[in-house]
Design brief:
This protein is of the alpha/beta class. It folds into two domains: about 160 residues, Alpha-Beta Complex (Quinone Oxidoreductase, Chain A, domain 1); about 130 residues, Alpha-Beta Complex (Quinone Oxidoreductase, Chain A, domain 1), CATH 3.90.180.10. Helices cover about 30% and strands about 25% of the residues. Strands 3, 4, 5, 6, 7, 13 and 14 form a seven-stranded mixed β-sheet that branches. Helix 3 crosses helix 4. The longest helix is centred in the middle third of the chain and has 14 residues. The radius of gyration is 20 Å and the shape is globular. Bound molecules: NADP nicotinamide-adenine-dinucleotide phosphate. The site of NADP nicotinamide-adenine-dinucleotide phosphate has 26 residues, from helix 1, helix 3, helix 4 and strand 9. Its EC number is 1.-.-.-. InterPro entries: ADH-like_N, ER, GroES-like_sf, Lipid_raft_assoc_Zn_ADH, NAD(P)-bd_dom_sf. It is an enzyme of class 1 (oxidoreductase). Pfam families: ADH_N, ADH_zinc_N_2. GO terms for molecular function: oxidoreductase activity.
Length: about 325
């Protein structure tokens, strides 16, 4: 099968698509034919070596956590899944940017009919992270919640989960995605010089007049800005773990949002049209470099998704799965 590989840390040009075999199917594993697989900034950080201390790569490295597809084969001890079942789920083996992926049977949920493959394949990392952050600050109806990175993969879902809780959202983003934010009922505040003053004004203009919680999906100064706006530390969630520890803020991330229950809930909300997963672009798997160029340089709204071709790997044909 075709799968993304890189053989050393580096820029986008170290990424390639190679012919490899999926790893062997264990008794509790499921082989999924991938129909769509989202890409994430964390994968770019791993590829450059920026996360070497925390998440080292071993070479050659595969890539990818998000996945949606159909079950192609099941291990001998798997009872809940059968070939042809539509699923979405996650890999913890950096392996979903491929035509086929092997995952433990309990890292999959059934794909509801109403959710497109692209959205299903982009939901896990961004959705679980957004869900964890919204849950961490316990946003409630009528409250004002500030979100940085509001128009990225994570932020777009977090904004909608907050709106489902009937919170008012003040979204820090660039003006290029104003229309989408306004369609969600959020108030846009531009990032850049003077952002704290603009936030103060937007919060004062808001009905409640105070910021109750802050979800930081960008890092930098935002956790400290949150405190300067009067948000209590326990209602600030950031993905910068060091800053969270220093300030007494929360740092709930995709790990806390990872469960079949959460992914099922997010998929059902999407299938019911209660949240959308904005897809900025899809790229064939073979265009993995172009996909990461778009993600890393073009400020896309929402997600970028890889679409593998549907060749059948030799080993699978041979075994008749
Ligand atoms: N630890 C975890 O479990 C975990 C999981 C998922 C993501 N993450 C991290 O969370 C971050 C967001 O992920 P993502 O997938 O949403 O990324 P993304 O899709 O690339 O979105 C990044 C967002 O940041 C915004 N942004 C850029 N400069 C900004 C600034 N100065 N102030 C405020 N916002 C700014 C962008 O807005 P414009 O497009 O308008 O410029 C965009 O909305 C990344 O750092 C990622 O690595 C961590």
């Amino acid at each position: 099968m075709k799968a993304v590989r890189f053989h050393r840390y580096g820029d986008i040009d170290v990424l390639g698509v190679e012919d490899v075999e999926p790893r062997p199917l264990g008794p509790r594993d499921v082989l999924v034919r991938v129909r769509a697989a989202g890409i994430n900034p964390g994968e770019a950080k791993i590829r450059t070596g920026a996360l070497h201390e925390r998440f080292p790569a071993t070479f050659p490295s595969g890539q990818g956590s998000d996945l949606a597809g159909t079950v192609a084969a099941t291990g001998a001890a798997v009872t809940g899944w059968a070939p042809g079942d539509p699923v979405l789920g996650w890999s913890w083996e950096r392996s979903s940017h491929a035509e086929y992926v092997v995952v433990p049977h309990d890292q999959l949920v059934r794909k509801p009919d109403g959710i497109p493959w692209t959205a299903a394949g982009a939901l896990y990392v961004a959705g679980s992270t957004a869900w964890a952050a919204v849950t961490a600050v316990d946003a409630r109806a009528g409250e004002t919640v500030v979100v940085s990175g509001a128009t990225g993969g994570v932020g777009t879902i977090a904004v909608q989960l907050l709106r489902l809780r009937r919170a008012h959202v003040v979204a820090i983003a660039s003006p290029r995605h104003r229309d989408w934010l306004e369609s969600q009922g959020a108030t846009l505040v531009h990032y850049g010089s003077g952002v704290t003053e603009r936030l103060r004004r937007a919060i004062e203009d808001d009905g409640a007049g105070t910021a109750h919680a802050f979800l930081d999906f960008h890092g930098g100064d935002y956790p400290r800005i949150a405190l300067s706006l009067g948000v209590p530390p326990r209602r600030v969630n950031t993905l910068d773990y060091g800053v969270a520890a220093a300030l007494g803020a929360r740092a709930q991330d995709s790990a806390e949002g990872t469960s079949r229950a959460v992914l099922t809930e997010l998929a059902e909300l999407t299938a019911a049209g209660r949240i959308e997963v904005p897809i900025s672009r899809t790229h064939p798997l073979g265009e993995v470099r172009a996909a990461f160029t778009h993600l890393e340089h073009d400020h896309p709204l929402g997600k970028v998704v890889l679409l593998p071709p549907n060749a059948v790997p030799h080993s699978i044909e041979k075994n008749g799965a």
